[in-house]
Amino acid sequence: MDADSDYIIETRALSKRYGRKLALDHLDLAIPRGRIHAIVGANGAGKSTLFRILLGFLPPSTGEARILGKDSQRLTPDDRSRIGFVNEEHTLPNWMRVSQVMAMQRNQYPRWNQHAFDGVIGHYHVLPEQKVGQLSRGERAGFNLALALAQQPELLVLDEPTLGLDVVAKRAFLESLMYSNATDECTVIYCSHQMEEIERVADNLIILEQGQLRNMSAPEDFTSRVTHWVADVPFKGPDPRSLPGLLEVQRLDGLHHYLVLDQDDGFERLLREAGARNVQSMPVSLDRAVNAFLAKNHAAPAAA
Known about the structure:
2 domains; 10 helices; four-stranded antiparallel sheet; Alpha-Beta Plaits; about 300 residues; 14 strands; alpha/beta
C-alpha cells in the first residue's frame, strides 16, 4: 500500500483475534481522502478494534493497516498531530479554565488555527474564564470539537460525539461541524448509531458487521437498495425462507410488511403468485433500512 495513496485509511486482510473471538475478519477497506464518511455497525461489529489498530494502540493479529499513508503501528508524534479525535466522553481537564486549555493546545499544535477555533466555539455560550467542569455536556462537546478542528488535522475521527446530548445540543454540534470551513481541509470519520445524524452529514456510508465490510456507498444509494412491501396475505403467506433478499417480515393490523434487499418488481410478482392482494411499495428511511440490514447480518453466524 503506497504512502502517496489517495486513501486516508487502508486495510488489507486485517484480522484481530481475542482468544476464540474474531473481532476483525480479513477486512479490506479503502476510505478516500476528503468529505465525511460514516461508519456504523452493531455492538461487536469491530469498529472499536479497527480504530485502536489504526491509531496504533493495538497490534493486528494478521494483515495490514495504514492511516495517512503510514503503517499504523509506526506512527510518530508528528503523524499523530495530524489526527484529531473527539469521543463520547469529551474528556477534558475539569480543573482548568477554557482559556488555559485552549492555550495548552495552541502551544502543542504548530498548525493551530485560531480562526477555526473561534468559528466553532461561537456556536456555544462558552466563556474563556469558565472552568471546564462548569460546562454542560453540550458545551463540552462543542469545545472539544473546536479544539480538534483548530489543530488543522488531516483526519478527524468523531466517535459517538453526540451521545447523551439533548436535541438542542445535538443540533448545535452538527451545525458547527457542517458549517466549519476547517472541515474543508480534512477527512472526517463519523461513528454513530444515530441515523438521522448520518443522513444529514455523511457523504459515504460504511457498514461493518462481524468484522467485515458489508456496504460502502452514499447513504441514499444504500436506502434505494431496500424496499418495503405491504400486502394483504391470506393465511400465513409464503415461507419467509423462500423469499429472496428478505431482511424483515412483520404482521401488523392484518397486513404483512416485508423489507427486502436488492429486489425489483419481481418480488411483487412473487407475492401475488403466493396469493397476496393489494400489494404496495412504500419508502424506507435510512434508519429502518440500516437497522434491518444489521439485524439480519448480526443474526448470521460469523466466519472464523
